Amino acid sequence: MQQHRLLSCFLLTFCLITLQAQSLTPPAGIFRLGIGEGRTSRWLSANKDIPGITFHWKALPDTRGFILEVNVTEKCKADTLYWSFGDCQPDVAVNVFSIEGQAFTCYYGESMKLRTVHGILPGDDIRLSNGNKSDDPQMLYHSGKRTERPLLVGRYPLTSNNTLYFCFYQQNVKADYNYYMLPSLFYQISTK
Q: Residue 115, exposed/middle/buried by CB under 10 A (0-12, 13-18, 19+)?
C-alpha cells in the first residue's frame, strides 16, 4: 500500500504540466498556480492556455523535486502570478513554515520525526494564509494567518519578456539552491 501511495504521489508530481494542484513528493505538499487581472483572480486548470505565458518543468536530478520555468512572452491580460503551497501532511498537526527572503522550508510530519521540503520562488512577497479560504488566489492571499490549515501564498507581477522560476525539493548535499542558481540549473538538466 505504501509503495502504491509513493508511486501515485510521484506520478502526480510529473503531471504539473496540467497546472492543476499537484502533490510534490510523498506526501510533501500541494503547489498551485493562479493568475490575477485587476481585482479578479483564478486558479489555473488543466487544458486551458494562458495567452502570453508558457510553463516548462523538469524533474531535479539529485533529489526529489522539480523546477518550473514560467515565460511571459508577450503582455497578456493577466498582471499577477499567484502561487500557493501547503497541505504537506494534513492528517498530522505539525505543518510549520520558515520563510527567508524568497525561499521557505516546510517542516511536516510527526513530532520528533519531522521531514522538510524547500521552496524557492520569484520575489519575496510570501505570506502565511488560511487554507480554508482558497476559492481564488486573491481570497487566499488576503485571508489572514489565523487558521488550523496554514498555507503559504505569494504573488509576483507579470511583465512582458520575463522569465520566472519555482523550485521545490528535498535538500541534500547535492541539492541546496538559491534563486540566482535556478536559470542555469534549469538549462543544465537534460530533457530526456
A: middle
